[in-house]
Amino acid sequence: MKKIGILERQALAYIIGCFQKYPTMEMHIDSSDTWVIGVTGVTGAGKSTLIGRLIPSFRKKGMRVVALLIDPSSKKRGWAILGDRRNLRSDELDCDKGLFIRSLATRGEGFALTDSFSKIIAYSKLFSDVVIVETAGAGQTDVEIREHVDTLVQVIEPLGDSLNLEKAGQSEEANIFVVNDREDFRSGKKFFASAKLVLGEQCLDDGWRKKVYLANAETGSGITEVVEGLFIHKKFIEKKQTAKPAT
Amino acid sequence: MSLENGFFGPAEVLIDYLTKLNDPGKYPFTRGIFPEMYRNKKPTVRQFAGHGCARHTNERFKKIISLGGTGLSTAFDLPTLYGDDSDAPLSRHEVGWDGVAIDTIEDMDELFSGIPINKLTVSMTINAPAAVIMAMYIAVAKKRGIPLSSLGGTIQNDIFKEHIAQNEVLYLLKHGVRLAVDLMAMPSNFHKVSISGYHIREAGSSAVQEVAYTLADGIAYVEELLKRDLKVEEFAPRFSFFFDSHNDFFEEIAKFRAARRLWAEIMHKRFHMPIPENYNLKDTKLQSLWCRMHAQTAGCTLTRNQPLTNLMRINNQALAALLGGVQSIHTNSYDEVLCVPTEKGVRMAIRTQQILLEETNITNWVDPLAGSYQVEFLTEKIYEEAKKEISVIESFGGMVQAIEELYPQKKIHENAIADRETFEQWKNDPNKKYFFEQDDTANEDLAEISEEVEKRHGYESEQKDRLSKFKKQRYQTGALKALDKVRRAAEKKESLMPVLQEAVEFSATLGEICGALRDVWGSAKESAGVSSSFSHKKALKFTKGYRFPRPVRVLLAKGGHDGHTVGFYILRDIFQAMGAEVIHLGFRTTPEAVAKAAVEEGVDFIGLSALIGYVPGFFEDLKNSLKSYGGSDIEIIGGGIMLPAHEKYIKENLGIKNIYVPGSSDFGEIIQNMKKRAE
């Protein structure tokens, strides 16, 4: 199993701190082809619980994982409660040396993604095989995060009428949708069926047909399929890239 | 004449004797559940004890019996309370430390070896894994030829208050409730639930909240049991309640009286238990109206600096409980704010009760304060306010829903932070200097206490050896099959009690059984936090509006199994008020997990609370882990119950300056230290 070494861990932690403190800091970073996955969805949709399920699947394939968890700061007093890391805790992940987790506060920048963000992702890529980025919200944030990630996942709570999905600000940008089938949502399966009809028909500009999955992040059911879907998208974009004429 | 003037007269306090008081033993039982109260039966002297391996506690039990204890009360160590075996990684530095370590049926057998469990009553303070522990107890009795019907005592088994206040939880609330109710529904003379306000109060609630949430928990248990097609009178007579006896003398007396009346009314009006015409004490419908009470003096009121002064506090609190008409009392040991009570501490605690019961003649009188304008005023006040708070819980749809919405948790936290603020002001008053003053006489006692505590270091290895030997010698296939059976039963609806008993008899360990249930049910989910705008305002008062000059990052975690959160949550509010970025790592962390997270998160501070166990051990491990992850420059703020020698060791040898110790430190100091560091 691949590891992130002690020095790499310290360096990554330190540099992320620097990028946040000094957003204008420049650093030459060799771009690497590490896969970047974005996970979005409204607060409470189950994003971090889902990530907590995805990480072990990547780790089992020997991939090193960096997870960046973004939460808003209080605009008035600057504080931030960063609680998502706790949702990624488990006996197997707590001390996993192939995993690096960083919680980021937006520090009053308005949108979830700050200037320093692309640099933080670029640097994280150097130490890992997959970078997972979690951001709250929908709409504007999704458009912003789209630029930084290869695969965008949106977690949806099966609330309300699925026909209103688009009105509810569901992403136009996402490649994969995960309907979180929690037990306290009674309508999970029904919602999933119609979400599949509404969203699953849509095609993105690059020709990717959107995928919709039903999964329960709490119990882990349906996660294997989500992971398969992620890898299908990975292959899809790799194929696209190799097909591109050299510039 | 009013609350402000400190006295009342007949104009303010209308005593409608028959509806609000009535004679002792008569509905609504404000004056006591029995007509003759202590004249007929003195309260049980029930001292909580447990440390080390089964054999150590067994010795202590025998000592308590020889000193005049009339019942036994078992304290389990944290790993046991959390359903973990002594060899689990999280159990390090906790085995046998604050209670007895019980992993197997063999441990349970040894715990009561030579003690006639069919003749005296045994109380067991355990909740989330209570059903498994009870299965062990029943299996041990069976081995000795004692039928279940001959066993008497109490097992706490109150899962609601764990979710509300103490956080020793294993599974999601609904699964935890199912396990607890499986035990409650088992027919026997045992009190299979002790509905507890104690921990709610110790977590910082007010007296009214203590009564309200405890009784609302009681209502929820009744409703769960009714779903099992039982009749109220089949289970309610075996309910018992457990309250704190705190410092505010008259308020406490009034609290016990108000709680009895309110419970009787709930059982009568809501659950249709009739008011009897002839009071026959054997009538189960009559018994269902009773709020039987155990009281314990308030641990959170004790001081560390002059342990002996605690004796007076404990005496006052025990006196309030007696005047309030409780059925049994646990008096704290004066040294328990330093460590798990020493033998001398336990002896003094028992003597305190004996002096009250045997020398003051108060047991000759039944509810002697009834009719006092002031006590009746306070009783009525608590009764009314608690009733109102219960209706708030009802508005959520009941206690289950209220807990899920974090309502009681938040209210308790708000009260705790407000109380803390008042207290820190109180102690700055020159007249209150005595409370914190250290005097020399304390040192002699400390030397004695320290000597006893040092012996505790050997418990962990002894118990781990015992456990590994037990596992080697057992019939492996039998144990595994029994565990499979537990898993299958957990998926179904039938009572788990028979399969749990089978599993312990087939030598499955506590940790294995709780693990098997976890395989099916998953783990508990920790609540997101209990801060509210009220607690935030209070925290701003604490910090006097100070704000860090830069984005300071803090990681907060609880080490080991401990779930005490009063200080932990207050600290979180304080950091938030100062504009910090708080990474909430949550409960039950190992030092390595904390160190790894702290380094990755690039924090300035780690706030680690490890309230119970060998506290310097946690911090030493954390220091070492930080070193190996390259985070030695991160400053640690620690908290825990520890001896002054251990505190000194942490400060001097480990270089951790900010140590918060309940009963002697304050947050003002910590805030000052953090300012220095951040600037």
TrEMBL record, chain A:
MF annotations from Gene Ontology: GTP binding; hydrolase activity
InterPro entries listed in its UniProt record: GTPase/Isobutyryl-CoA_mutase, P-loop_NTPase
Gene3D superfamilies assigned to the protein according to its UniProt record, in alphabetical order: P-loop containing nucleotide triphosphate hydrolases
SUPFAM superfamilies: P-loop containing nucleoside triphosphate hydrolases (SSF52540)
Pfam families assigned to the protein according to its UniProt record, in alphabetical order: MeaB
Keywords, sorted A to Z: Chaperone, GTP-binding, Hydrolase, Nucleotide-binding
Lineage top rank: taxon: Bacteria
Protein name: AAA+ ATPase domain-containing protein
Source organism of the structure: Candidatus Giovannonibacteria bacterium RIFCSPHIGHO2_02_43_13
Organism taxonomic ancestry: Bacteria, Candidatus Giovannoniibacteriota
TrEMBL record, chain B:
InterPro entries attached to this UniProt entry: Acid_CoA_mut_C, Cbl-dep_enz_cat, Cobalamin-bd, Cobalamin-bd_sf, MeMalonylCoA_mutase_a/b_cat, MMCoA_mutase_a_cat
Top-level lineage group: Bacteria
Coiled coil spans: none
Ranges of residues in domain B12-binding: 551-679
Keyword Metal-binding included in the entry's annotation: yes
Pfam short name (any one): MM_CoA_mutase
PROSITE patterns linked to this entry: B12_BINDING (PS51332)
This protein's record includes keyword Heme: no
UniProt xrefs under SUPFAM superfamilies: Cobalamin (vitamin B12)-binding domain, Cobalamin (vitamin B12)-dependent enzymes
Cofactor(s) annotated in UniProt: adenosylcob(III)alamin
Keywords linked to the UniProt accession: Cobalamin, Cobalt, Isomerase, Metal-binding
GO molecular function, one term: methylmalonyl-CoA mutase activity
Xref: NCBIfam families: acid_CoA_mut_C, acid_CoA_mut_N
Family: Belongs to the methylmalonyl-CoA mutase family.
Protein name: B12-binding domain-containing protein
Source species of the chain: Candidatus Giovannonibacteria bacterium RIFCSPHIGHO2_02_43_13
